[in-house]
Amino acid sequence: MKEIQTSCGCGCAASRGTELKPIASGAEAASAAELVASSREGDPVVLEHPERAERDASADGAAGAIVRAGMVLLPGGEFRMGTDDKDVFPLDGEGPSRLVTVDPFYIDETAVTNAQFQAFVDATGYVTEAEQFGWSFVFHLFVPERLRPSVTSVVQSAPWWWSVEGTYWRAPEGPGTSIEDRLEHPAVHISWHDASAYAKWAGKRLPTEAEWEYAARGGLDGRRYPWGDELTPDGEHRCNIWQGTFPRVNEAEDGYAGTAPARSFEPNGYGLYNMAGNVWEWCSDWFSPEYHRSGESVNPRGVAAGATRTLKGGSYLCHRSYCNRYRVAARTSNTPDSSTGHMGFRCAADV
Ligand SMILES: [Ca+2]
Ligand SMILES: [Ca+2]
Question: Cα of 183 to ligand 1 centre, how many Å?
Answer without folding.
Answer: 18
